[in-house]
Each structure stands twice: as structure tokens, then as C-alpha cells.
Amino acid sequence: MQELTHYIDGEHVKGTSGRFADVMNPATGEVQAKVPLANKAEMDIAVAAAASAQPAWAAVNPQRRARVLMKFVDLLNRDMDKIAEALSREHGKTFPDAKGDIQRGLEVAEYCIAAPQMLKGEYTDAAGPGIDIYSMRQALGVTAGITPFNFPAMIPMWMFAPAIACGNAFILKPSERDPSVPLMLAELLEEAGLPKGIIQVVNGDKEAVDAILYDDTIQSVGFVGSTPIAEYIYGTGCAQGKRVQCFGGAKNHMIIMPDADLDQAADALVGAGYGAAGERCMAISVAVPVGEETADKLRDKLIPRIEKLKIAPYTAGDDVDYGPVVTSAAKENILRLVQTGVDQGADLVVDGRDFSLQGYEDGFFVGPHLFDNVTKDMDIYKTEIFGPVLSMVRAQNYEEALGLAMDHEYGNGTAIFTRDGDTARDFANRINIGMVGVNVPIPVPLAYHTFGGWKKSVFGDLNQHGPDAFKFYTRTKTITSRWPSGIKEGGEFHFKQMD
Ligand code: NAD
Fold first, then answer.
1. pLDDT of 126-138, one tens digit each?
2. Burial status of residue 287 (CB atoms within 10 A of its CB: 0-12, 13-18, 19 or more)
């Protein structure tokens, strides 16, 4: 049995807490490795290493820091297949999807190569007689991030690339479900020239998270995961005086207007609803056709597409549509929620409950499900299922469809499919959701824009990546300076106006 490690101060180190978690192969249901779960003493060692390495790293000029990321991007491209394979093996997603996971993280590393430009600061010449004012953005010091299982490459990169580009040290506490890829990424960063102690991976669970939250040296915490944990981390981290940003769960609605191209909408729904087995925070889990006729036609187009989906392990080829879910507990939870949908009166028009794959009977595969006539009060509508389950909620008109998405507690992503520019524009303006697609089902912004939801999908005021990341990982310092040529009048006892 492989025993994974932490990555502390440039070395792979074994866990010393005596606690481990099983890392599964979701396709076979077998335990493939054990990951150590750190205690506070192990976290303290990482924090001390980070604190001692960080000042020298912050003093490296931003262009040289950016060069480390340039090299990292090269190395990541070199090792793409190897890392994607490890990712698929632990997570279960298809091989092309695993590459996409790495690619969308890599793009943020590429964006962060612009650190010298982003960190330039502001300058006002001659703000008063002989007085100049300038603002600079300085690194926070030791920063930390806690990441979810569903994007084990992308989300760590969304955090550590800007953190280290800004001159911070970064401690990553990845998901204990798929910890191998984060360890590989840390190794690549050091191969790219990052000094020891600037990136560290401390594996663990709540105990490691609490060690981060209550540590006095760690200045900021980034979190991505489910909403209850996001709320806990935001509340606890803020109470400890840290800068915290937390990104939580989702229930993303796609509105399909009567004038939409319904083939295009059905294709989009199948990809966005069932891709990665629905384990995406930007997955579409609610389809809202407007009008009974639209709903009936859409349902007729969805059913054959869903029935054709190829569900298999990543090793079965690049034409696999989706693989297993991450754990048996996740599978049980999905099937439990499906049962509540049936019990509460929704129409289960595609029933994946009996799905089983020959040769992989112990894997965590879940067949695709489509519910029709779902209503607002049902658990399958209110809860994030995080599985291959799409719910159709029929709306009689546009206002009702808009209101549904607006009233839901989550506000991560949404989409509208229509050919009418006025409707699309009205939707984009009025909706209270952070990321909006117009005829685009999964509107994940590119690296140079920012990513973040609204409502219960986010806690904190800055988004991930894009310019916000440079704000989150730095503090502003403003210097007002006056040189002797401007000091002519002796002592000043009043608040001076800049005349
Ligand atoms: P999770 O909340 O179970 O775990 C996320 C992280 O928190 C992991 O590192 C885990 O070890 C840690 N954790 C778990 N329980 C904890 C506890 N009690 N105390 C402290 N830390 C704890 O989430 P997950 O199942 O890994 O990921 C799926 C969730 O993440 C979904 O809700 C999904 O919507 C969300 N997600 C959101 C975004 C976004 O950007 N909004 C992106 C990806 C995933």
C-alpha cells in the first residue's frame, strides 16, 4: 500500500500523527494509497519553514518571481499526461477532463506571469509642495489554502500561483480524497526554481484546517468547498483576524426560452449536467424551460441524449462521457436524494439507479438521472446533489424562470439559452448570480477575469484569479514623503492642506 507524504520545506516527509485516510480508486472501489492527516505539530513545522523562507522570496524582484512561474508552466506542459493520469486515477474524471482541470489552473499561472505589471502600484507626483505619495502592494507573508476534491489541480493553482507571484509563502491543505496531484505540483514548482518553504503541502482533515485557522503567523486563508464548511472557515478565520475568502456550493439554473435552438440547448445541458458526473460547482443541475411546449420538446431531446451517455473508467478511452463519483459515501448520498425526489412526487424520466458496469461492480458509478416536474419545495431542488442528476422545473414565463434562479440560496453560475438579445441582456442585468452564460452553459471566466459567485456561494469580497487575486494576496501601503526642498516653514501644528 502506497503511503503518501506531506511536502514540507522542500522534502517529502512522512506523517507523524499516526492518523491516515484512505485514497480510493473510484473506478474499482479499491484503496490505492493512504494519506497522512497532519496534526498541529506538523502544521507548526510547515508554518515555521514558510515564515523563515518568505522574506527572502518577497525580496526577489517580481520579474524573477514571474520567471519561476514561466518555467513551472513549461514543466506542467511537459508532465501533463502523467499528472492527468494520476488525477483521473484518484478523482475518477475522464482523461480529457483531467487535462482540462490542469489546463484551467495552468492558465492562471500564465496570467500571474504579469505580476510585475500587476504589482506596480500608484504614484502621485507633487501632491503638495515637495510632497509625493505612492502606494505599493506588499506580500502578506505566510498564506494558506484549503481545496476541494473536485478540481485537485485547478483550484490549488488558482490560489498558489498568485500567492507566490506576489511574494508570499503558501501552505496548501488539499482534499484528502485526491492528494497526489497537489504533491506533484509542489515538486514541479521547486524544479522550476522556487525556494524551499515557499510552497508546502500539508495533508489532512479538520484538525489540519483548524491548525491553519488558529495559527497566528498565517495571514490569509483561501477556501473552496461546500457551503457549510465555507461558512465555518470564514467565520473562524475572520474572528482570528485573518483575511479570508471562501467559495461554497451551487445549484446552477439554465433557462431555456421558447426561441432557443433546442438541439443546442439539449447538447449543452447534457454536457453541463452530466460532465464530470455532475461534480462541478459550475454544473447545471436545474433546467428551466419556459412554457409547456418548450419543456415537452426539450425533454424529448434530452432523453435519447442521456440514454446514449458512455459511463466508464477513464481507462476506457477518450470517448467516455463521465466516470465514477469520488467515494461510496458520495454515491449513497446521490441515490438517497434521488429517492427523495421520487418520494416527493417528481417524475423520474431517466432512472439511473440500477446502473452497474461489468467488471467494475465495486466502483462508484452512478447512472444518469433526469427528473421532470420538479418543484421548489423538493429536496432535490433545494440541495446541491453533486452527482449526475438533472432536474427540470417548468416555468410558465420568463419572469417566473428568472425569479426561480433569483430566489435560490446559491448564486454561483447560471445560463440563459435564447436567440433574443433583449431577453439575454435583461437576464444578465437583473440576475443576482455571479457568473452568467448567454448560450454558454458553463460560464467559467478565463484567468484574466475573476471567478466568484454571489449569495451562499461565496463568503468574502474578492473573487478568485484575475486582478482580484493580486489584491487578495497583497496589502496596500501608502507612503507620503516630503523632501527638504519642500520644507521651508519650520514646524507645522495643523492638519496641512495640499495647497
Ligand atoms: P468539502 O467542503 O467537503 O471539503 C473541502 C475542504 O474542506 C477539503 O480540503 C476538506 O478536507 C475540508 N473539510 C472538510 N470538512 C471539514 C470540516 N468539518 N472542517 C474543516 N475543514 C473541512 O468539499 P468537497 O466535497 O471536497 O468539494 C465539493 C464542494 O465544493 C461542492 O459543494 C462544490 O460546489 C464546492 N466547490 C465550489 C467551488 C466554487 O468555486 N464555488 C469550486 C469547486 C467546488
1. 999 889 999 999 9
2. buried
